[in-house]
TrEMBL record:
<dbReference type="InterPro" id="IPR045063">
    <property type="entry name" value="Dynamin_N"/>
</dbReference>
<dbReference type="InterPro" id="IPR013761">
    <property type="entry name" value="SAM/pointed_sf"/>
</dbReference>
<dbReference type="InterPro" id="IPR053082">
    <property type="entry name" value="Nuclear_GTPase_SLIP-GC"/>
</dbReference>
<dbReference type="GO" id="GO:0003924">
    <property type="term" value="F:GTPase activity"/>
</dbReference>
<feature type="coiled-coil region">
    <location>
        <begin position="427"/>
        <end position="454"/>
    </location>
</feature>
<protein>
    <recommendedName>
        <fullName>Dynamin N-terminal domain-containing protein</fullName>
    </recommendedName>
</protein>
<feature type="region of interest" description="Disordered">
    <location>
        <begin position="58"/>
        <end position="114"/>
    </location>
</feature>
<feature type="domain" description="Dynamin N-terminal">
    <location>
        <begin position="163"/>
        <end position="384"/>
    </location>
</feature>
<dbReference type="Pfam" id="PF00350">
    <property type="entry name" value="Dynamin_N"/>
</dbReference>
<dbReference type="InterPro" id="IPR027417">
    <property type="entry name" value="P-loop_NTPase"/>
</dbReference>
<feature type="compositionally biased region" description="Polar residues">
    <location>
        <begin position="95"/>
        <end position="104"/>
    </location>
</feature>
<keyword id="KW-0175">Coiled coil</keyword>
Length: 765
């Protein structure tokens, strides 16, 4: 190995891999020719490998362009904040001050030229410059100074993408996450998702080098309400009732199997080990070793099981947990990405249910995880997708669905047991599994309708992965395990380039405004430019408002048709829920649970442990309304990254400052135009984000309004007891729906239209 390779690895903070590169005989020529598989073998850890690949890519690009002027790029992109005419002095003043805060090591690295400038270094340098600028802004309060301070503080944003991970226990989610983040035994099998109600987030620890788990509990009041319902739900034939089995499992975990014999279950003695619950605080578990955290966390995330590791555990606290956030140090792939292990559906507890809906709605990507041997026929996996589609599609921001078939490495059925034969057997089965899964997905019209036809092929992807082969290759190379594809996807989600670009362009705009404000004269041209820009803004806003008005009218027409259909079919929809053709034994308990939880009977488990489908009467009653607007809603508020709301009219809004800046006539206001251009880009992104959040509320308003209209009905049905209670509850609900149907659905339409109207009249446009 020559000095070039050694210097590069040292420069990039990869000293520990120098010996490996030397043993493999990597010289300068082969360094530039390294393929992904070779890099994976040289650097098996995900974090360092990702850094190496990114810097190698940048190095190759700089070698190809061979442009020596780019060596000064980070300094040249920043306009001077000074009002003097000495450009060289202005630049050296800022850089000199910022360099005083840099270590000698960093100075040396920056002096090496283009290869030293990764995006992180560029952003760090610009941040340093902006800190210096902030210090130089006078303390005297005036509008301009306050404005500049606010703009500088607003430059730094924490962009975070959420990936929701669904899959039943045993599907291999823990092993998948371990392999993706590069920790072999961090989450042991069954350490997550063994409990059906807790959402678990996994993200990078950016503060320190510890492994942390932040546990958030439900409130005491919520637990008291759950206890009241649980105790009052103890009816006859308890052992045959799935709802009761869930209750018994929950209370037995916390209080012991003799919980029925205990009084005052809110007594503080039951919560001595978790005082945070009584104090409404978070509990934080910390360790410096990855393997130690799951052992501490197990009681908060999983149901009681007959595992040797569980012996001696008296209390299990997962019934009290709302969500858990696990923070992993040195997890570069999770710097701006959060993986969330999610239950398959909402929960009877309001806090957990709200978190479930919020998290699903915030996911830009959904991973459905299933064992490859039953992926296409895994009813529970497909039911999860169908149950969540409205929350992640029109009611959310999901633009990618990945179906991940796990455990692709077993090969006991292979005829040819040679290494090549086993590899061919695994790869052939993988292709067959992908074909079957895609065929199954093509039949899910209720899911597909939330994605545009043009983007469907890009939105739905299938992966066949082997965590075992990835961590310990025997028959497949790492690329064939397809784990690197998922890692590459997460790396793209991190999108550091966009973060750096946004920060640098924003900083450039602010510094342009500072420099431009110091220039005297040119008052006439400034007035002319202001007039041009005001007229342009009026014209551009009119285009947006016109599109919004057309959209409003289209929704008004769709909703009117939806109201008419709802009024005609709502009683049929009601009967399908409260009087199904095959109700099964103990349906009066199911109906009572439904009214106790305001129209929702959450998924429990049958005797055979298979999951029951959630029953949602509010969704059934509002379904004709949502179906009437689904297509128009998808078109108006697309989730696809490159599409904008209102048929792209907001994205196409432009004051044309970039073109004006190129005109010599406006040279005296060139810097102000630079600032306005940067602000326009930033403002449009902010508006798109605001509208994206508003559209979730707008879409859910139909079901929310129907639920509010049904509340009196649920309250009345809750009080019904004794003989014929099932029929009496049914009659109460039938009468309420019949009497209110001419008002309930019109009111839901009115609420949605009002919220659409508010998008135009409120301050965002």
């Amino acid at each position: 190995m020559n000095d070039f390779v050694r210097d590069k690895l040292t420069e990039w903070g990869l000293l520990e891999w120098i010996e490996t590169f030397e043993e493999e005989g990597v010289d300068e020529e082969s360094f530039y020719s390294l393929e992904d598989q070779e890099i994976a073998e040289l650097i098996p850890k995900v974090g360092p490998r990702s850094r190496f690949k990114k810097r190698l890519k940048l190095l190759k690009k700089e070698q190809n362009t061979a442009n020596p002027d780019t060596a000064d790029a980070p300094a040249q992109v920043i306009p001077s904040p000074s009002g003097t005419s000495n450009e060289g002095k202005r630049k050296s003043d800022l850089q000199g001050e910022s360099n005083q805060q840099q270590s000698p090591t960093k100075k040396k690295r920056l002096a090496k030229g283009p290869g030293a400038y990764s995006e992180e270094i560029i952003q760090a340098d610009v941040e340093n410059i902006m800190r210096c600028v902030l210090k130089k802004i006078p303390d005297q309060g005036n509008n301009l100074n306050d404005f500049l301070r606010r703009k500088i503080h607003d430059l730094k944003t924490d962009k975070r993408e959420v990936v929701g991970v669904f899959g039943q226990t045993g599907a291999g989610k823990s092993s998948l996450i371990n392999a993706v983040i590069g920790l072999k035994k961090f989450l042991p099998s069954g350490s997550i998702s063994a409990c059906t109600s807790v959402s678990i987030k996994v993200e990078a620890n950016m503060q320190n080098s510890n492994y942390e788990a932040i546990i958030e509990f439900i409130t005491k009041e919520e637990w008291r309400d759950e206890l009241w319902f649980s105790i009052n739900f103890r009816l006859e034939d308890e052992e045959d009732d799935s709802e009761y089995r869930d209750i018994d499992e929950k209370l037995s975990a916390l209080y012991g199997e003799d919980w029925k014999e205990k009084s005052d279950l809110m007594d503080a003695k039951y919560f001595k080990e978790i005082p945070e619950f009584l104090l409404s605080k978070e509990k934080i578990l910390t360790t410096d070793k990855a393997k130690d955290l799951p052992e501490k966390l197990i009681r908060y995330t999983r149901t009681k099981q007959d595992n040797a590791e569980d012996k001696g555990t008296k209390r299990w606290y997962w019934p009290l947990v709302k969500c858990v956030t696990i923070k992993v140090p040195n997890a570069d792939l999770l710097k701006h990405v959060t993986l969330v292990d999610l239950p398959g559906s909402g929960d009877s507890n309001k806090s957990r249910d709200k978190i479930w809906k919020t998290v699903v709605g915030s996911c830009s990507t959904i991973w459905i995880v299933a064992d490859i041997n039953r992926a296409a026929s895994d009813k529970e996996a497909w039911d999860i997708l169908k149950d969540a589609c409205s929350y992640m599609g029109n009611g959310g921001q999901c633009n990618q669905i990945h179906f991940i078939c796990t455990k692709s490495d077993p090969h006991s059925d292979a005829d040819d047991t040679s290494k090549a034969g086993i590899r061919d057997f695994i790869l052939k089965r993988n292709q067959q599994a992908k074909a079957k899964v895609k065929q199954e997905f093509n039949q899910l019209n209720e899911v597909k309708k939330h994605f545009s036809n043009e983007s469907f092929e890009h939105s739905f992807k299938i992966f066949t992965v082997s965590s075992v082969e990835f961590l310990n290759p025997k028959h497949l190379n790492k690329e064939q395990t397809e784990i690197p594809k998922l890692q590459e996807f997460l790396q793209e989600l991190n999108d550091c380039h966009r973060e750096t670009l946004n920060y640098v362009s924003g900083a450039r705009g602010i510094l342009s405004l500072i420099q431009g404000a110091s220039h005297r004269g040119g008052s006439e041209i400034k007035k002319d430019v202001c007039t041009i820009l005001e007229e342009k803004m009026t014209d551009e806003l009119e285009k947006v408002h016109k599109q919004m008005e057309e959209t409003y009218q289209a929704f008004e027409k769709c909703l009117s048709a939806g109201v008419e259909k709802s009024e005609s079919h709502c009683e049929r929809a009601l009967e399908s829920v409260i009087n199904p053709r095959k109700p099964g034994g103990g349906f009066h308990k199911t109906l009572r649970c439904l009214v106790e939880h305001n129209g929702i009977q959450n998924a429990g488990r049958k005797k055979n442990k298979k999951k029951k489908k959630q029953i949602n009467l509010n969704m059934a009653l509002s379904s004709y309304l949502t179906e009437s607007i689904d297509e128009k809603f998808k078109e108006t508020f697309p989730n696809e990254v490159n599409c904008g709301p209102f048929n792209g009219k907001l994205n196409s809004f432009s004051l044309d400052t970039k073109r004006m800046k190129m005109n010599p006539e406006y040279k005296d206001v060139e810097l102000q135009l630079e600032f306005l251009n940067a602000e326009e880009i930033k403002m449009k992104k902010k508006l798109v984000k605001i509208i994206r959040e508003r559209k979730k509320t707008i879409y859910s308003s139909l079901m929310t309004t129907v639920e509010e209209s049904m509340q009196k009905c649920y309250d009345d049905a809750k009080g019904i007891r004794g003989k014929h209670s099932l029929n009496n509850m049914r009659e109460t609900m039938r009468k309420h729906v019949h009497d209110s149907k001419n008002i309930m659905f019109k009111n839901a339409r009115k609420v949605m239209l009002n919220q659409l109207r508010e998008l135009r009249v409120c301050n965002i446009l």
